[in-house]
Design brief:
single chain; mainly alpha; globular; 71% helix
Length: 229
Amino acid sequence: MFLVDKLPRHASDTLQSPPTRHISLNNLSDDTPTSPSASDSFLHSLAPSPKQTRSLATTTGLVIHAAADGIAMGASATSANTKLGFIIFLAIMVHKAPAAFGLTSVLLKQGLSKRAARGHLIIFSLAAPLGALTTWLLVNIAGGAGMDGEKGQWWTGMLLLFSAGTFLYVAMHAMQDDAAQHDHSTLNGFGEGGAGGAPRKGGKPVLRDTVASVVGMLIPLATQIGHHH
């Protein structure tokens, strides 16, 4: 989920960095206006805007969260423990309405139109039912072997834990506006380089920080390899 949030921003910053243009002062008196080439304009139009990239990351995170909920519900429906399936179903139904309201509110705040926000909401709403039906069908086709007992409950718990983690990450990080403000200040030329100065190089340092964060996340996992308690 961390990479889903960060990688689209790096791609957007790379595509949207405008090329440096040098205009001679001797040509200011000419009648023919200088305009960018057609190829540069076409490539710039294909680059996603920061608002689109941020909205896509927010929706992707919540869709992954909803799909994990659906997979957990489908897995619990195939087990003999009916109480577990009912508890998961009740928990999903209770928090889906606030999650859908929060998603649409954030998308509209990020500048999306009502039609685009409605499309994102439809995809988010279909993720959990499709995940539950797909999991239920796959388990029944495979015969349901290994889903009863403690093993099935363990996998259901892991899916719910993953779902909760994605939801918390989206709520705490993907919905913040600090990156959007950074993009706005960089495009206006008033970034860390100062007014009138050249904008700072925003691609490599930020990408380096992302790689360092991923390595730091994997270090505790690497220390557990070979240790069984």
